[in-house]
Amino acid sequence: MMMCTRKITTLIHTALVAEAKPIIGHFSLTCKAKQPFNLYEGEQIVLIVSGMGSQNSKEALLYALSLYEPCVAINIGIAGCVDKTVLKGTLFCTTHEGLSVPFASCSSHEKAVENALHVKTTLVDMEADTFLQTLPKNIEAYVLKVVSDHLEDVIPSKTDVGNWIGKSIKQWEKYVRR
């Protein structure tokens, strides 16, 4: 039996529930599944929470793409920043220059990076590269990252993460197709 995919306009991907919560509220999404991934749906918007890391992201995205056909996909989440002058909570787009959101380069790493010595990008995360590699080329893809740390060995609180993502939505919601 062939699975039927539903056409939607936008797929949003986060790694963490704390990143997803303000987006779920903002777009009035409802929970459709908790297994194998947290999946939230609106009329034209779907959000999937993968868990951290490239393997989780790949599996979650392939699962979402087996259910939905989006026109646009957005990865939104936190990232470390090598530039200590950039304030925590600052939003960057890592895929498009010239938008209303400032551009910064980003590289993905399997583990948290605590030494900027070998980093050649402004931002570091764990999922962006896999997100872009997993999506079919016909889907317009945006990677948006909110600065959460300056490569210190400190995990940001869920409250801070939620607040930063929540404050960033007004800057990037125009790229969500409804």
Fold and architecture overview:
This protein is an alpha/beta fold and 178 residues long. It has a single domain (6-171), classed as Nucleoside phosphorylase domain (Rossmann fold, 3-Layer(aba) Sandwich), CATH 3.40.50.1580. Helix content is 26%, strand content 29%. The chain contains 4 helices and 11 strands. The protein has helices at 17-26, 54-67, 128-134, 158-172; strands at 6-7, 10-14, 30-33, 38-41, 45-49, 68-69, 72-81, 91-93, 106-108, 123-125, 140-149. Strands 2, 3, 4, 5, 7, 8, 9, 10 and 11 form a 9-stranded mixed β-sheet that branches. It has a two-stranded parallel sheet with strand order 1-6. Helix 2 (54-67) packs parallel to helix 3 (128-134). It is globular and about 45 Å long. The two termini are 30 Å apart.
Question: Layout of helices and strands, plus pairs?
Answer:
Elements: E1 6-7, E2 10-14, H1 17-26, E3 30-33, E4 38-41, E5 45-49, H2 54-67, E6 68-69, E7 72-81, E8 91-93, E9 106-108, E10 123-125, H3 128-134, E11 140-149, H4 158-172
Parallel strand pairs: 1-6, 2-5, 2-7, 7-11, 9-10
Antiparallel strand pairs: 3-4, 4-5, 7-10, 8-11
Helix pairs in contact: 1-4, 2-3
